[in-house]
Amino acid sequence: MRAIWSGSIGFGLVNIPVRLFSATHDSRLDLDMLDKNGHANIRYARINSSTGKEVPWENIVKGYKYHDDYVVLTDEDFEKASPKKSKMIEINEFAKEEQIATTYYETPYYLEPVKGGEKAYVLLREALKTSGKVAVGEYVMRNKMSLCLLKPLGDMLLLLNIRFPEEIRDYDDLAIPKDIAVKPAELKMANALINQLTPKKFSLDKYKDNYDEELMKIIEAKAKGKKITQPKFKIVHSKSKDLMAQLKASLDTPKKKAS
User: Which residues neighbour 205 within 8 Å (Cβ) at sequence distance 6 or greater?
Assistant: First the structure.
């Protein structure tokens, strides 16, 4: 793996040099955009809106429109905005993980200690384990301030980017039911269904993304000139509006395996 950021974790006066690695990758099929007439590949061009000519990468700069004119920013300007956070994941405080709603969770990254930082890395990892807390901090990557939390994952420290509160939308304008009463018998039956669908040992390993696999079968069939028939599928809604009847029918339905 290739590191996408390098710097340090600031843990009080302890400095832990680390490298940051992406923890995820896109598993989707790599599809190209084509012109349907002749199947020529579509490419994106960086066009100057004044001249209509393409601009090479080396001539592209970033700017902010200020009072009807652009102020051009350099890499040095971005770093000057927060020189400390551009080089350091600054731990501000610690909290219980359950205090941070999952709505805030964004992107996971792996943290690896740089040579010389192993002992301090292990110390922070073990301290987080024994305290049962996560570290909340800030850093700058790719000219963007990121809020993050650090937590132990086995022998590793995991960094999770989390959203700032102002990035979370309010949902007051949604029609969320608040005053609907649920009967105790209905709740008991719903819990019975939950228990029926709760395995003795839970693991996400059994879940596989098989959409691309099915799509690849269609691609290979079309490449061979075969005609593809559209599978029929229809969502069937229960004829009964009685929740108890629907729940009972659900309990009587054989449990399906994860696809």
Answer: none
Mean pLDDT computed over 203-217: 82
Tell me the CATH architecture of domain 5-25+78-166.
Beta Barrel (2.40)
8 Å CB contact between 135 and 141: no
Residue corresponding to tokens 């019975």: 192
What residues does CATH 2.40.290.10 cover in the chain? Answer: 5-25+78-166
Assign 3-state DSSP to the chain and report helix, strand, coil percentages, each to 5.
Answer: 30, 30, 40
The Cα–Cα gap between 192 and 2 comes to: 48
Picking from 122, 181, 148, the residue whose alpha carbon sits closest to that of residue 23 is 148
Distance CA 3, CA 110 (A): 9
The pLDDT tens digits for 158-201 are 999 999 999 999 999 999 988 888 889 989 989 999 899 888 99
